[in-house]
Design a protein that fits this description.
The chain is mainly α and 243 residues long. Helices cover 74% and strands 0% of the residues.
């Protein structure tokens, strides 16, 4: 291995250590208390070293979000590759999302902050492009299912393009994530299993799109059985507990 390659590997390893330490600080002290100076102190690096990796705190937050998205994309890929109907595979994307948030509970809290207008615009173009690149497989998995559903007749787009159809599912899921992470909000409205409720709402949405075969979202047993089947056949080693 040449000097250039060795240095690149060392930089990558150090950046990973910094990201890991930043996550620890967020869990311990809270997201809004994350400071570059504190990260430098606790990771035993000089501030100048941190700035070799992250031009600003906004870059750090976006890098944390991007790192998690890579894992989310792998779960989406598995859902998309499942040997099932297009509708069940689209629903499996929602189940994948619930598994992802259980495995990476801080992701959506960080992402919500990192992708707000002020933070996003302050991040470097390099970090924004890296985030777009990491997120593209998520889009590819979902759009692949939608396009296949249209091609085989499971779904009549009725004037919507695949991106517009996918956006409806995406925004519903993001809305749930945001509410879940607003501590106490859903408890106030007596909602104690939000992701099970998300699964039920997703079936209503797919019915509204006339995505075949239609199902009865009020059939709790059928919904539980489908979730269990997805978790067993697609994500068996990741989720021993119910949705």
């Amino acid at each position: 291995m040449g000097t250039k390659e060795r240095r690149a590997r060392q930089l990558q390893e150090r950046e990973q250590l910094l990201l890991n330490k930043a996550r620890e600080l967020i869990v311990r002290d809270g997201l809004l208390n994350l400071q570059m100076a504190r990260l430098a102190e606790e990771s035993e690096h000089a501030m100048g070293t941190l700035y070799q990796h992250f031009a600003c705190k906004e870059d750090l937050l976006l890098a944390l979000t991007t790192e998690s998205v890579v894992h989310q994309a792998e779960l989406f890929r598995r859902a998309a590759d499942w040997q099932a109907s297009t509708r069940d595979r689209m629903f499996a994307i929602t189940v994948a999302d619930t598994i992802f948030v259980n495995r990476y509970p801080e992701h959506f809290r960080i992402a919500q902050y990192a992708q707000c207008e002020v933070v996003w615009n302050a991040a470097s173009s390099k970090r924004r492009e890296a985030h777009y690149e990491a997120s593209q497989p998520l889009c590819d998995s979902v759009l692949g299912i939608v396009n296949e559903a249209i091609a085989c007749g499971d779904l009549d787009p009725r004037g919507l393009n695949p991106e517009q159809i996918s956006t409806g599912c995406w925004t519903m899921a993001m809305g749930f994530h945001n509410l879940v992470h607003a501590d106490g909000t859903l408890d106030h409205y007596n909602i104690h299993q939000p992701y099970l409720l998300l699964c039920r709402h997703m079936q209503h949405l797919l019915n509204g799109l006339a995505w075949q075969p239609l199902v009865d979202p009020a059939d709790g047993a059928a919904l539980d059985n489908l979730i269990s089947r997805i978790r067993t056949e697609v994500f068996h080693e990741l989720c021993p507990n119910p949705c």
